[in-house]
Amino acid sequence: MKKLNIGMVGYKFMGKAHSNAYRALPMFFPDRLHPAMKVICGRNREAVASAAHQFGWAESSSDWKTLVSREDIDVVDINAPSNAHKEIAIAAAQAGKHLYCEKPLALSLADSREMLEAAESAGIKHMVGFNYRFAPAVILAKKLIDEGRLGDIYHFRGWFLQDWLVDPDFPLAWRLQQEIAGSGAHGDLGAHLIDMAHYLIGDMAEVIGMSETFIKERPLPSDSGALSATSGAAAEKGPVTVDDATLFMARFANGALGSFEATRFASGHRSTNSFEINGSKGSVIFDFERMNELQVYFTDDQEDVQGFRRVLATDSAHAYSGVWWPTGHPIGYEHTFTHAFVEFLDAIQEDRLPSPNFHDGVKCQQVLEAVEQSIKERTWIDVASL
Ligand code: SOE
């Protein structure tokens, strides 16, 4: 079996999630193309060497420029903070490497378009890390919609709620700095909801939003780790330059109405990622905390048994059944990444673009920016005008 040599830039939360996916892939998908975990790269030489050892990479490096130009690297996987994506992606594409890049693709729509352009003109395969598409229950929702079993779609309602910023002493991590993260809850959590809506419902025609930064200054961090920065340390504070919460409404091109809520201030919600879709023939509800289930309602059920049923997307009728464990045994967060990389490697082998790819990353960025413009101008924005 031919192997593809991976060079990965980033070694924290997503670096661990991606490494875990690469490791699981040959064991659970033995007849597919396999990844060889060649080089892991990061700025801190000692920390990245220790990650290489812990995650199972053959080598570590602190020089991404050398990594992307190495002859023996086939794929560059970028999961460093968002401000690093563009330069690395463009250099890697120009060196002919296939690209897997975490979301949000870039700090701005213009940057994401440049990345897409570089990837397309290099003729490489490119994928963006919207991993939640790969939960079997989400795939079931997609199937019900595509087969017309929910009828005409009227509503998409999405919410991604976290609470790690409620503590005012939580330090000014990189995710709270606009020049590194691009935006706050909007680009971090809202991006997942936007992609989910694109995947399940289709394009958005117009949007209007509002956002807030509830805590304007935070203690400077002792390290710049994302959710792991140590709390309450320094007396010196710096400004939070991103949104803590962003809400918006959308009108989809097919006439459906959407509402979206992304916040890091929803006390009690560690990471609630949910959506509900209502159509003329039924509804579905997905909640990532119960990711093996899809709540399904059909209007033509007999009246005396009408109501939401809990469908377990873990048996033989559903995606990836039999790949992991025997029917009925649940899977978790980490499996969504393995599924995403299976799609990526399959696409490389089959010489087609994977899905979601940089086009989807750009489309997401376009909505992110349209919402930001609507907030600034306090008006509806035509998404296609951007
Ligand atoms: C942190 O807010 C985060 O890890 C996001 O960056 C991820 O994309 C999301 O899946 C969970 O929350």
From TrEMBL:
Which GO molecular function entries does the Swiss-Prot or TrEMBL record give?
Answer: nucleotide binding; oxidoreductase activity
Q: Which Pfam families match?
A: GFO_IDH_MocA, GFO_IDH_MocA_C3
Q: Start and end of every Gfo/Idh/MocA-like oxidoreductase N-terminal domain?
A: 4-130
Q: Where is the GFO/IDH/MocA-like oxidoreductase domain?
A: 140-284
Sorted keywords for this record are: Oxidoreductase
Q: Name the domain of life.
A: Bacteria
Entries under PANTHER family matching the protein: BCDNA.GH03377
Full protein name: 1,5-anhydro-D-fructose reductase
Origin species, per record, is: Planococcus massiliensis
